[in-house]
Amino acid sequence: MEMADYRLSREALRDVKSIMDYTAREFGRTQADRYRAELHAAALTIVAFPRLGRPYRTSTGEFYRRHDCGRHGLFYSETDGGIVIVRILHLMMNLDDHLR
Known about the structure:
It is a single chain. The chain is an alpha+beta fold. The chain has one domain (about 5-100): YaeB-like fold (2-Layer Sandwich), CATH 3.30.2310.20. Helices cover about 40% and strands about 30% of the residues. The chain has three helices and five strands, in the order βααββββα.
């Protein structure tokens, strides 16, 4: 059985860059690399178990699943082509504001 794939939306790619820049600046490059690996492992877990994430519906009715990794939530959708991670957001943010 072939495992599905995942991809990051344009916004999620920007989120990763922002997270890595902040983590490297505040905690060092080694910690940033470690956290990137943790985020990638979380994405692979989502691919293996797509229903693992908790359902999350925005105030405008959009539906995603959310899987937490550290202080961030990976918000994703299941598609025929695999998992699309639409955003990776710090859990202290107003999530709905960033999921429009």
